[in-house]
Queue: 2 jobs
Job 1
Amino acid sequence: MDQVVQGELKKAAEAHGQENVVVLLGSPDADSADIYAETVTIGDPTYAGPLAGVALNLPVHHILEDMVKEEVPQEIYDEQVGVAELSLEKEAICSAMEEARVKFV
Amino acid sequence: MITPVVKGASSVIAHTPGLVRHGSKPTRETAKNDHLLDEILANLRNYEEAVAYPPNQVFIGNMRPDDLNEYARPWTNVKLTDAERFGPSGEIVPEDEFYGWLKIADEFQLVYLEKTFLLELKEKLTNHPIIQPEDFERLGEGKDIEVIEKALAQGKAEPLHVNGNKLVGYVQTGHDEDPFLTAEIILENLCNKASGIIAMRHVLYSFDVTAEDVDYVFGCDEEAVGDRYQRGGGNIAKSIAEHAACVNATGSDIKAFCCAPAHSVNIAAGLIQAGIYEEIVIIGGGSLAKLGMKFAGNLKHDMPIVEDQMGAIAMIIGKDDGKSPVIRTDSIGKHDISAGSSAQAIYKSLIIKPLERFGRGILDIDKYAVELHNPDVTEPNGNGNVPRTNYRTIAAMAVLRGEMEKAEMNHFENKHGMAGFSPTQGHIASAIPFLGHAREMIMNGDINNAMFVGKGSLFLGKMTNLSDGMSFLIEKNEGVNEP
């Protein structure tokens, strides 16, 4: 996760409280979803960005997960995410996210 | 009406492990961690390893992108035994020679090399196919190492190293008070210029257009050349063309982040079609700032640092010669401001709309060139396989349009795409590295057409939230307009 995004997340968590911020990922594969989920929970594993050693423990989900999809009007979801849902490895990403939420606490 | 064609394309790699420490990310990280520079130096490749690296052989044109499918990833584990330094129209330049090109590109006596190093360098460059007698005069006589060390100790200079940590020269500041002419920025811009000169000389050396024939030159890189009053004023294109003997040309820079090469091809094609110019060269030099950008991912996975090299490209767009692939100016795709930024909105603008204009579908294009970032760099860093994601998106569009079954999506990359083989240098990786391959493959009859899809992250500059995209299609020349 690039440093700017990490910095913005850190600022948002400080400004609004960690309990009021949810991270929604759009990363293209299971590996990157895993790293990003780790970054926003227990900290940046590459120790390169503002979240190095900072455990924000933010709730994290992926746009392809059904629990997120259900929150979005279908027409908008199809228009904005439809191609990604078809083209990305949805199953692998979703299971990586489920594992990450258990792993990184 | 004059038909614009692709008369040649060259791709060059400057393998510069000694410059990795000057990349933006390594510079920032080594300042925070005293041990990191040693770790970086211990994980750089030597020149032979860079030459034997399969994606590099593809980049300079000795192998086709599809040949990469024969090798297991990561390709850093593969050492080709028959790898060559020179390709049909490019080369992999070793770092010592590249410092020579830096000196040749230096108009203001800002680059200094050590005497003995320079002597050996001149000997090495003697038989280089694109070196000119006047280049040796520009290389000069060099300085004693004590003088170099003293200049560096005074600050306002950046060191040049070979073989990891051996000091062989320096680049000094261009102005004592100007934050945009510091030694760092002079080095960055000279790297772009020098690699651009090499690529431009190769393209003019390898194809049927002479330097004197060139009317105009576009720069399509991402460097900002200028001073405190006009940061990014330009004009790198003209400064490169000067060193390639294009005496009848002028030029300008096209700026659009990674998308600039595709913009440049389309603008050049329009100027040729309009009859304003007959031969145009598009040049994209390498990016020093991006060296080592994703080094942490490679180190984490016990891989050598793959971003130890800069890419440079040069293309000749000219009037119809009856044989070179034609640029379909009725096929240009552009991402309009109102188009939206979802993947499907972007691809609708760049692929579907232009194809629909002349009644073709997605599968009618033999090969798509997208962002061809080497996954050996991006995957270890958690950025995914960029071209694969792009091909899967295009395949999904074909499924949604009823052109293909979902079960066939996994074959789309192999059939209509390719593995990523380009240095991850933004504009360099943006579809264009396939142009030389596509030109040859079309002329050999291997494919009939190829579409080039470039995208750019304009939002990085904090002036707009928009992204950008341009595309163009080339196809077989039917030879009806023979000169």
Job 2
Amino acid sequence: MIKASLIAAAYFAAAMTASAQTSPGAPQPSAGVDQAQVDQGKTTYARTCSHCHGPNMVNGGTVAPDLRAFPNDRDRFVTTVKRGKNGRMPPWGDVLNDDQIATLWDYLASRRTP
Amino acid sequence: MKRIALAASLAILAPFGVSAQTTDQLVKGATDTSNVLNYGMGYNLQRFSPLTQINKDNAKNLVPLWNYSFADDRSEESQPIVYQGILYVTTHAATMAVEAKTGKQIWKTKVEYPPETPRIVCCGIINRGAAIHEGKIFRTTLDANVIALDAATGKELWRQKAADIKEGYSMTVAPLVADGVVLTGISGAEFGTRGFIDGWDPATGKHLWRTHTIPTPDEPGGDTWKGDTWKLGGGSTWITGSYDPELNTVYWGIGNPGPFNSAVRPGDNLYTCSVLALDPKTGKIKWHYQFSPNNPFDYDSVAEMVLADINVEGKPTKVLMDANRNGFFYVLDRTNGKLLAANPYVKVNWATSIDMKTGRPIETDVSKDAREGKKVVVYPSILGGKNWEPMSFNPQTGLAYANTLAFGGHYKTEPVTYKAGEWYLGMDLTDLWEWGDGPRGHLKAIDPLTGKTKWEAPSDIPRFSGVLSTAGGVVFSGQLTGEFEAFDANDGKKLWQFQTGSGIEGQPVTWQQDGVQYVAVTSGYGGVYSLFSGDERLAKVPAGGSLWVFAVKPQ
């Protein structure tokens, strides 16, 4: 029991730290990005991406990458979304058009971990 | 080529020559302690073993004997099959035969599928296990194929495409071999599919029958759908059914309707959120019982329909038990589908109770408001009071041991349009959970007839592991944080645990071989909770699939 509550306390502490760093569901304002684009990206993300990368891009980053930590490399993002990667990330090039992928990128930028 | 030939010759030389295992042995699976021949450790899906070598007194001396890497970092939800000292286990990417005593691989056959496939897999890149019959291993693939392999060599013997991923269909289910027929179900009710159960000839793969879970307008139940809504009505069948050989009846749970937004599909929407009693030879429906008519909340009823013979009001009764995702624990008379008991086993606010005369839920304003498009807080959440992870029924204690969920959800419908191969939900996915402050899950010992909890073992991050119980008075389960655990069946006292290195979403099994009782479980997480919860505490739990085998160290 002691061990269990110790583990629980450790997790709780970790969770508190995590929530202090990022506030899920509250995108940070990002200069030069159209909020309408971000909102559209959020909707597209929920439909096509969230069942692997987590609701609002919140996940543990172990099973699928934590996109909030994705490098600031738009070309890499677009290529990966279109073509897929490593037999894990499926290709979306025949489902999502360039505009939709652009809104996903804007949404990702709004969710990035500082 | 050389390697394949070598593997084949090793298999022939293996000390336990693979002899064809028969229909009769499958029927006796629940009491065959030297093998694990059925999904659910018996056609009754009780996941109960009469073995006693591992018991509540010596469980603390359990030690790992070996670990076998799947070389895979997806969710490992497969139940191993054990026959004559060989474990047969699956991942989404391979089927494997492993020597039970040593952990040595006998053969491994890869499964390949198109890279687009994960787009239409809602809840984890997984497979739930194989079936065995007369020297063949049967399994399904993520891209909706059913295949048969030679149990001795792993060589593919036949392959049948059941459905098309472009239309949103996938397969994760472990097949059921009943009355000489291979039965399989389908996944995809979140993608505008129409569910079904198939029957296949084990020898040749010939397609014998298909029973759709959503009737056409001119079939019985067709009037429970308006217009063309039946065509995208969902009703998937992704958990293996149970089978009563005496009644020659298969009991298969049916999933949620599509889309989630129930305003799109007025009516009861048969046979979604139901159990079907089927003739395995023909697929003909003998009876049905619907748990949740016109359900908005993803209360899939696919999870295991456990069979037992118990006393109901003093009378020995052939029952079917289901800890339904909708939060009620049901007991039905499995000879006719009559409702015997339905009581909440977790917090429920979408219905007050189940009408024992009609079998229908008495719904609250939460359900009404949800259907009208208002945002509601609903208990259980869309993950249910218990998700897919199978419970165990112990006939000695008369209790069901289940990993249950203790949180609610936010639910708000959205307009929805169908596009082949994409989500067809009609629900806001950006704000899903009402976590509350306490533990998010409990391993509970539940009285089937009252739904009451005898004991519970809480967990901050809920358990999504299958449960195993034994005549030794031990209950086995696992944590998403990696601990494989043993509990006292009577009071829930933790007897032992072992860190397996990744989260456990597997299905523990036990058998005895040459005087030693073994327990096996897969480790490796990535299923529905880790994908949808946004629980960042799991960032500290590595992915990585493997198979563990344990026994009690001689003192």
